[in-house]
Write a structure and sequence with these properties.
The complex is a heterodimer of chains A (282) and B (281).
Chain A: H1 6-34, H2 44-51, H3 53-86, H4 91-98, H5 106-117, H6 122-130, H7 145-173, H8 177-185, H9 190-201, H10 203-218, H11 222-228, H12 235-245, H13 249-273
Helix pairs in contact in A: 1-13, 2-13, 3-7, 3-10, 5-7, 5-11, 7-10, 7-11, 10-13, 12-13
Chain B: H1 7-40, H2 44-47, H3 61-68, H4 72-103, H5 109-121, H6 124-127, H7 129-142, H8 149-173, H9 177-185, H10 190-219, H11 222-227, H12 234-240, H13 247-267, H14 269-276
Helix pairs in contact in B: 1-13, 3-13, 4-8, 4-10, 4-12, 5-8, 7-8, 8-10, 8-14, 9-10, 10-13
Classes of the chains: A mainly alpha (282), B mainly alpha (281).
């Protein structure tokens, strides 16, 4: 084979595979969500979805969860990334430990936090040991929606801050050291440097991290399933419920379209509001 | 009046803040894992007891019970099979593409690389995950081939492929092209030069990217739960038995998921750091 065609032959398989497995499902889900059993265009599945009593709660819970979790993760990851860049020794060890959750399934993360938040779990043991409570408190379940939400938030922050940390650390690595020296020469303190230099130069990485994390937050599923059962409906959980338990894939597809819709809106938002003007890029 | 802070004092304070923050963050990551391991390696009676002990009993009864539980061994085998297939698909499709963008200049290269970069930065496969699993489930059921493990492996490969292309790209870029040219001079053809010179040098990195694909598949829950009903994977099994299984079974299952994944990620950490662009500067 001539070397002119060789690179194309090498990239063809993966291109075909991605295109087929991305476009085909996309078209199929969209058509399923919008067509009735008679094959005509219809919004009936969306109506069924919206009319179900769980839909409003699932949508609200998913959006709230993302609104709480993502900013927390961003702040925590920024703090950790600042620490990593200042470490002189043990940088790699720290980074490895802090990124351990990247290799942990969301299902396993839910189970891990169940060990802490269950009624006979470690949080109650600890609180009894310190003498804050006299008998084990129920944290999870229908009667304790507030603490159930707290448990889900903790598990999500524990599990998924690592991906933000990775993106921010690699972004900080791109900021030239000379900027830092220049800022010091002009007498900038740590806070001034952080707000006026690091954050603005980190904007592209912040944008990537926020887009990625928000989309993933909209897909929260297994953590919630473990910690709350069906007490705390979220969109992915309802999609699963429709597809798996109720065998109603048309309404499941409608749910998938809603998840896709809010993901696109949030991505567009971050693309617009964290735009880096041309020529300012580091 | 505020006393001015000397440079040494400032450095000392920075070091102290770093130390305290580092210890806290490390405890925040490791303690929950430790709690899971305590529960997984205690007897079923101890797991439901209160208050909890802070040390594991070193009892493997819960683990043994999990492995003896109806369907767990086959779920484990299914998980391994799907992860292995994902590994093979993503390396065999991903590595050639990685090699092509590392070695050749060709029209369309920039847009292809952009496409792959985009899937990392704006993760289309992640965006599409619910979309991906659902129609395939419908498709499989309609054609009577639901529950095939290779169907799930294809969905997982979709998630792993962008990473495979990116890792192999940086890997092959790191092998000097001069070595390959030298092999040509000494009479190797392109394929021989690749298998005898490039491959041995790139093998550890290829193994790392294969392991990463394995972990992605091993950990995935949603598609696995929707696409496998009879041939359940371990994650699908654990998710579907959440409401019915006793609590010690969940913890043992959680540990069974976490421990291999964590070991694998530890083994390939250097390559991961390189891929994420956070290697030592």
């Amino acid at each position: 084979m001539s070397s002119r065609w060789l690179p194309y032959a090498l990239i063809a398989p993966v291109t075909v595979f991605i295109a087929a497995l991305f476009l085909y499902p996309f078209v199929m889900v969209a058509s399923q969500a919008f067509t009735g059993s008679d094959g005509a265009l219809t919004l009936a599945h969306f109506r069924t979805m919206v009319d179900h009593w769980k839909f409003a709660g699932a949508l609200k819970n998913t959006l709230w969860l993302a609104a709480i979790v993502v900013p927390l993760q961003l702040c925590l990851a920024l703090a950790l990334a600042q620490m990593v860049t200042r470490l002189q020794r043990g940088r790699d060890t720290m980074l490895y430990i802090w990124t351990i959750p990247l290799g942990i399934s969301d299902l396993a993360a839910g189970i891990i936090w169940l060990a802490i938040f269950e009624q006979t779990g470690f949080l109650n043991t600890l609180m009894m040991g310190v003498g804050v409570v006299n008998e084990p408190v129920g944290f999870l379940g229908y009667a304790n929606l507030g603490t159930t939400l707290l448990a889900v938030v903790m598990a999500e922050v524990w599990r998924a801050t690592a991906i933000v940390l990775v993106i921010l650390v690699s972004g900080m690595g791109l900021i030239p050291k000379e900027y830092n020296e220049a800022a010091e020469v002009f007498g900038a303190g740590a806070w001034t440097k952080f707000w006026r230099m690091t954050l603005p130069l980190l904007k592209p990485s912040l944008q990537t991290a926020l887009i990625l994390r928000t989309i993933l937050a909209f897909e929260v599923f297994a953590v919630v399933a473990v910690l709350s059962g069906t007490q705390f409906p979220v969109l992915m959980g309802e999609t699963y419920e429709r597809q798996f338990t109720l065998q109603d894939s048309a309404v499941a597809s409608a749910y998938a379209m809603v998840i896709l819709g809010i993901s696109i809106v949030s991505t567009a938002f971050f693309l617009r509001f964290l735009r880096t003007p041309e020529g300012v890029r580091a | 009046m505020k006393t001015p802070v000397t440079l040494e004092q400032a450095q000392l304070r920075t070091r102290r803040v770093l130390l305290i923050g580092g210890v806290l963050a490390t405890a925040w990551i490791l303690l929950p894992l430790y709690f899971l391991l305590i529960n997984a390696f205690s007897s079923p009676e101890t797991v439901s007891q209160f208050p909890k002990a802070y040390w594991p009993e070193g009892n493997t009864e819960s683990m043994a019970f999990l492995l003896g539980f109806q369907g767990v061994i086959s779920a484990l085998i299914n998980s391994l099979a799907v992860a292995a297939m994902t590994m093979v698909i993503s390396i065999f499709l991903g590595a050639p593409a990685g090699y092509a963008i590392a070695r050749y200049d060709f029209p369309g290269k920039t847009s292809f690389r952009m496409l792959i970069m985009l899937t990392r930065a704006f993760p289309l496969p992640l965006l599409a995950l619910p979309l991906l699993a659902l129609p395939l489930a419908v498709f499989f059921i309609r054609h009577g081939i639901d529950d095939t493990l290779w169907g799930l492996a294809m969905v997982h490969s979709m998630l792993a492929l962008p990473f495979a292309v990116l890792i192999t790209y940086s890997l092959f870029s790191g092998v000097p092209v001069e070595l390959e040219e030298a092999a040509w001079v000494f009479g190797c053809n392109k394929w021989q030069a690749f298998t005898r010179v490039v491959m041995p040098l790139a093998a550890p990195g290829l193994a790392a990217s294969a392991v990463f694909a394995f972990v992605i598949s091993w950990n995935e829950v949603f598609a696995a739960a929707v696409l496998t009903i009879e041939n359940r994977t371990l994650t699908a099994f654990l998710l579907q038995s959440l409401n019915t299984s006793p609590v010690y079974l969940k913890f043992a299952g959680g540990a069974l998921l976490v421990v291999p994944a964590t070991i694998f990620m530890f083994l390939i950490r250097k390559h991961l750091f390189a891929m994420w662009g956070i290697s030592n500067r």
